[in-house]
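seq:
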Amino acid sequence: MTLIEEMEQYALVNDIPIMQQEGIDFMCTFIKEHQIKNILEIGSAIGYSAMRMAMLDSQIHVTTIERDQKRYQKAVDYINRSSCETQITLLYGDALTADISGNYDLIFIDAAKAQYIRFFERYEPLLKPKGYIISDNLKFHGFVEHPETATSRNLRQLVGKISRFVEYLKRRDDFDTTFLEQGDGIGISQKK
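struct:
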């Protein structure tokens, strides 16, 4: 079993949200096609997507942040066992308050869905001109397209926040945003 397969198995058994296969395959293809080298990831979980992205090319560097202590420690363990540990900077903390600097070709948002607008606004100044912000889980298991199926109040509120984020992206004149069906719904916003 490869390290990636071990991570996929751990995520499945422990109900850790990692990118769906179709979504991560799309991300990897996108990174290769656009020659992305410097990536900021909001929401590491166990380091799965950071490793998948770093493994594409030895010139790629991923800075990733996770606020859950247990997931962060698991990510540290996995990344230290990988062949790309020098390409990944793993930070422990809250992305809404962390002090992160740099210039990025790509910012990948895959953390607390209710905070997507705040993450976008906080980190888009670190994006290079013509850079990309990719947001995952915009369909949120089909609930965004069919909000009437959300049974609990908390779920309805979360679905509403994701829907507002999608509308927010459509209104941003300084970005061109494309919405794709891959995985659980992906938004690609390119800075003009």
